[in-house]
Specification:
This protein is of the alpha/beta class. The chain has helices at about 5-55, 60-65, 110-115, 125-130, 150-160, 185-200, 215-230, 245-250, 265-275, 280-285, 305-320, 350-370, and strands spanning about 90-100, 100-110, 135-140, 165-170, 205-210, 235-240, 290-295, 325-330. Helix 6 packs across helix 7 (about 215-230).
């Protein structure tokens, strides 16, 4: 027969079970706390000890971080087939800049060309010929990481082409399918080579420079070089720019965990210059005689809005009155354009067209004065 438990025994058994449950829960809590403590300690060790020591003794990593050319997204793509990116009136070609540097390039035609030649297979020679037909040409210089086939870049090409612009762009040395290793002078040399390649074929067609993010620093330095040589670009568009590489690095989201540490500047910022990387747009802009338009979204988390303002203020302060105007176009943060999506702004095409028309009029006036 089954023994009938008395109320006292039942209470004792319940108490023992509760004690065991409490003890088990306490053990689990301690174990969990200990695990969290170990993981937290490891993360803090990596963040504040291992990584700074690694950078200190392996400073070669800094140029790779600045250019981030090893980050290639989307991966496994064939740049020889721009149509795979939805660019149906685009050709792929290569330019030899130096003996060991060959850069990949794309040329996207204005949409009106396709409309007037809907069934025509456009040859490379005809691509070149179209450059001299009077349509505006944009030499586009992208930012760090990724390639000329990056999604947001392709969307911009499509938008500009739909508004009847030519877009000619490259992957700098070490980016995409281009050979070589990126350096500040090297990527500017690539852009310089592209600009002259376009000018040799463009006839009287208006040619503008457009840079995004790190590409704005390349564009500004290129424009300075051209102006110093007496070849003044018609106009310069700087999308999400920064004033200089030191401020850009110090304000980058990746630097956030280190900014309050006393050795932050010495290890992560000052060392960049040791590799010949300066990108001082706030100094180069003084020598850019062309009209400049800065585009910046207030919610840019990669290159903060205030760095674009700093460049604008520097340009207004140090450029002589004889230089072209400098305009700053702000995009409110509530639109969510961030760092890469200003192309989504419905106002962008008219903003760009107005700037370009104003730049063309400015150049015509300058010619009349001479």
């Amino acid at each position: 027969m089954m023994e009938k438990l008395s109320p006292a025994k039942t209470f004792k058994n319940k108490s023992k079970m509760e004690e065991q449950t409490t003890s088990s829960s306490l053990s689990e809590t301690i174990a969990t706390g200990w695990y969290v403590a170990k993981v937290t300690s490891l993360v803090l060790f990596l963040l504040y000890i291992a990584i700074p020591i690694f950078v200190q003794y392996n400073p070669w990593i800094l140029p790779k971080v600045v250019f981030s050319n090893v980050i290639r997204w989307p991966p496994f793509v064939d740049f020889k087939k721009p149509a795979d990116f939805g660019l149906n009136t685009t050709r792929n070609f290569y330019l030899t800049v130096e003996d060991d540097v060959k850069i990949g390039a794309w040329h996207t035609l204005p949409s009106s060309v396709l409309e007037s030649h809907p069934n025509e297979d456009i040859s490379h020679e005809k691509f070149d010929q179209h450059l001299a037909h009077g349509k505006k040409i944009i030499v586009y210089l992208h930012g760090n990481s990724g390639t000329r086939g990056g999604w947001h870049r392709v969307q911009l090409y499509k938008l500009l082409a739909s508004h009847d612009f030519h877009i000619v762009t490259i992957d700098y040395r070490g980016f995409g399918d281009s050979t070589g290793t990126p350096t500040e002078d090297g990527v500017v040399s690539d852009a310089y080579h592209l600009y002259h390649w376009v000018k040799e074929r463009s006839g009287d067609s208006p040619v503008f420079l457009w840079g995004h993010s790190l590409g704005t620093a390349i564009t500004t330095k290129l424009a300075k070089k051209l102006c110093d040589e007496g070849e003044h670009p018609l106009g310069v568009v700087l999308e999400a720019p920064f004033n200089n590489i030191n401020d850009a690095a110090a304000n980058h989201p990746f630097s956030f965990p280190y900014r309050m540490l006393p050795w932050f500047s010495d290890i992560f910022i000052s060392s960049i210059a040791d590799h010949g990387i300066f990108f001082t747009s706030d100094k180069s802009v003084e020598h850019v005689t062309s009209p400049i338009m800065i585009l910046h979204a207030e919610d840019d988390a990669v290159v903060p809005y205030h760095l674009g303002l700093k460049l604008f203020e520097a340009a207004k302060e140090i450029r002589p009155n004889t230089h072209g105007d400098v305009d700053f176009v702000s995009f409110p943060g509530h639109h969510g354009y961030g760092h890469k999506h200003i192309f989504k702004s419905p106002e962008l095409p008219s903003i760009v067209k107005n700037f370009m028309e104003k730049s063309i009029v400015k150049r015509q006036e300058q010619k009349k004065e001479k």
